[in-house]
From TrEMBL, chain A:
Matches recorded under PANTHER family: ABC TRANSPORTER PERMEASE PROTEIN, INNER MEMBRANE ABC TRANSPORTER PERMEASE PROTEIN YCJO
Keyword Aminoacyl-tRNA synthetase: no
Record PROSITE patterns: ABC_TM1
Major localization class: membrane
GO cellular component terms given for this protein: plasma membrane
Residue ranges occupied by any ABC transmembrane type-1 domain in the UniProt entry: 112-326
Region (Disordered): 1-44
Membrane topology: Multi-pass membrane protein
Organism name: Nocardioides luteus
Protein name: Sugar ABC transporter permease
Assigned protein family: Belongs to the binding-protein-dependent transport system permease family.
From TrEMBL, chain B:
Pfam families recorded: SBP_bac_1
Organism: Nocardioides luteus
Protein name (database record): ABC transporter substrate-binding protein
Signal peptide segment: 1-18
PROSITE patterns for the chain: PROKAR_LIPOPROTEIN
Keywords, comma-separated and alphabetical: Signal
Superkingdom field: Bacteria
Amino acid sequence: MTHDVTEPAAAASGHATSDARRTGAVRRAPGGPAGTGSAGPNRRGDDWRKRLEILVFVTPALALIALFVAWPIVTAVRFSVYDWKGFGDLTDFVGLENYAEVLGDEVFRSAVGHNMVIVVGSILLQLPLGVAIALLLNRKMRGQGLLRTIIFVPYVLAEVIAAVVWLQLLQPQYGFIDAVTAQIGLTPPEQGWLGTPEYALWIVLLVLTWKYLGLAVLLFLAGMQGVSEELHEAAQLDGASWWQTQWRITIPLLGPTMRTWAFLSMIGSIQCFDMIWVLTQGGPADATATMATYLIDEGTKRHNYGIAGAASVILFVIAFAMALAYQVLILRRDTQDDTQRYTRAESALFGALSRKRKAA
Amino acid sequence: MSRKTQALAALCAGLMIAATGCGSSGDSGGDDNTIIWWHNSNNDPGKGYYEQVAKDFEKANPGVDVKVQAFAHEDMLTKLDAAFQSGDPEQIPDVYMERGGGELADHVEAGLTKDLSEDASDEIDMIGGSVAGWQVDGKTYALPFSIGVVGFWYNKDLFAKAGITTAPTTMEDFYAAVDKLKAAGIQPVSVGAKDAWPAAHYYYWTAVRECSEDVLTSAVKSLDFSDACFEKAGDDLVDIVAKKPFNNGFLSTGAQEGPTSASGLLATGKVAMELAGHWEPGVMQGITEDKKGLGDKTGWFAFPQIEGGQGDPAAQMGGGDAWAVSEGAPDASVDFVKYLLSTDVQTGFAKNGMGLPTNPDATGALTDPALADLIKVRDSAPYVQLYFDTAFGQSVGGAMNDAIVNVFAGKGSAADIVKATQAAADKEK
């Protein structure tokens, strides 16, 4: 807890520097960009102030990160190399045995598979649906606001509440969904939708889609607002139909938004827990177990904290690796210089349009 | 000092307090005359009754202060785990509940629980054989105050409607009853397999019928499941599941929450029976709107006998709760636990319907007729086998329960149950 000790010192010096900074800023203001106007001895003082300033503003955040992010991660790693029941000292060092056990556990491997199904399934379902709905809602029409709200409501609900609602709807035999299925002349599965191992994961995926489609639509709509009206007008002047405009202008320019959304969706899917815990608790027969339900099951339920620690570290590594890969392979395009990218998309667009015009 | 920096300083100071404060916020458990008592009777009449018990004890022992903390059951378990995890005697309650078996053995091994063998020898003698579940290496670490047994609770009306006149006693009777109920258009049995343990109770029971007491007792110690009876019990379970006696969608049915849970289905007359413990009438009362549960229609019969089984036909399977004293607790805590097992306290406990008392002089005080019948069954049993997931500990028990649910889902065999259990047990050795 060293940061706590440094805290008062940082705080005490904080107000002095902060006041100094303010006057400094005022003095510097007419002199052009910071650092170039002032010279000599003042400059060194400014450097110091700047450092202190950074220190003061960054320390609380760093302390919080250390306390609530770094320390738990370190603790999880520490637990993962011990055989520990949850009390007493950490004495039974087992090295990487817990990792071998987790990786050798069929339930964990299938849990990783389920996570991947949710990652891929969420994107495959929500991307086309989300874009379609966003395109629809982006047109001026009556009740637009209401429709947008309705689509967005599931996302606002707490995940647990949404899960409880669906749990009731999906109740075998007495639930709404089973009643509807029976009404239209189909036989609902004997074990209910969530109780049949073959269906359970897909049902969970559908509920997750219902829940998170609103976020995709919202982000895509926002992305669409960012597409310059001039481009639409230019396309219209050139005689492009509504479909052509969407297909060749809106959707390509929505790329960065889609990629960012897919990233968020992916991370959420890897950590998927609440919905599954309420709907199925990872069952039936581990058919919907995810990495998160696995580690809760091993940790809090079975008191195998070492195993749970190892599973959480593996989950962390998988999520981290996927995030990093996505960042490097896909998101990098969006973090390049913005104007370049835009020009490129635009030139591609105008190229396509002009080609089309020539053909016509 | 500008407002911004003031706020910053306040934030930093707050952070410091938050970071250091959590270490000292516990109760003064080290105080020689203060007993911190955790229990899970957080509803009246139980809650009020225990407060009165604490006051009575304080009156009889001047200078002793009993601090009562009532939790919802799950909250209590979480808090206990956290307190034990911290290893800080300030945070660990002085008197708390132990479920016995492997969990208790782990606590004992970690030096968290006090040996009561000498100090409470009278009470241990009084409770008799059932105390075995709370013994480790011949020493007693907790005093069970309520022990129940698991059996079939049934709806007498629905049984009559299906033409079943006597409660089943053998597996053949049971299957005949299931067929009759099905023929009458009634779903025979509900089971909350989503929560695993209600399904697991079926296997515990077939094992109690198939295995002799010696085999079970030595299995708890040796964690060796090679005796053929464990697999035979699994075969019996496969047979039961193949008979399809369970409610539609039992794999996604919860144990006790709401009208569509296994208990709810029984309470609302949707199924004819359910395998459950002594808590079932209370749970059903909580679910139905009139707070009566099945009322007069409530019936009970023991798990059917299995032909050729090695188990004692009168043996029971169940479990209970015991009062334990933590290692760092003041001496008065032991006296308090002994007081909790006294005829006075146990009689009030029985009168308030809080469980099945273990003090023989208090058993007559049960007012609930279903429980009064049940305690006779329990007391005439040669032994009550502790729930396997408790007896073998959560790690082995959890693996066993999962394998049992797989059988319910049609995804595993009898051999798989034994294999999964043994694999988890081998890690414990």
